[in-house]
Amino acid sequence: MTFNQSMSLPIEHKLVKTAEGIRLTRMPVKEVETLRGKSYKLGNKTIKENGANPLKDINIELAEISMDIIPGKAKEVILNVRGVDVKYDVTNQLLIVDGVKAPAPLQKGKLSLLLFADRTGLEIFANNGLMFMPININIEGSNRTLSLSAKGGTAKVSNLQVYELKSIWH
């Protein structure tokens, strides 16, 4: 690589009013969308324990993944990105990735999730930027799989979209 360490996506900070008071949000700048290549618009899916993986046909390295998770009866919803589990613990309303935990409370019964996968980690935004979770982890280059599953019950996802991203180095 032509760099040392890792850097975050360019992020826009905003102050927003919430029921808990004014909060700081962080979301990627709109210009990041210019990196989008092929898109997979999968819409609404029901995720069952040991059920079909709606992302099984996607083979991808650099990715942007977005969805709204409606946990239903599920205890966990797991998005596996190239071998890295992004778990949503419904009972405790926590996102858990590589041993790192971050509070991500449901809003109106759902969790809005936006995730970017790079070669050196994941950047996760929940609830329109109220939670930002950067995870520095070297992702196995040969693993280009995605999966979505639930444990302990059935969950639903809506607005499921995946974009293949172009490298900024080319």
TrEMBL record:
- UniProt xrefs under InterPro entries: ConA-like_dom_sf (IPR013320), Glyco_hydro_32_C (IPR013189)
Source domain of life? Bacteria
Q: Which organism is it from?
A: Niabella ginsengisoli
What is the protein name for this chain?
A: GH32 C-terminal domain-containing protein
Signal peptide range equals: none
The record ties this protein, via Pfam families, to: Glyco_hydro_32C (PF08244)
Q: Which segments constitute the Glycosyl hydrolase family 32 C-terminal domain?
A: 31-164
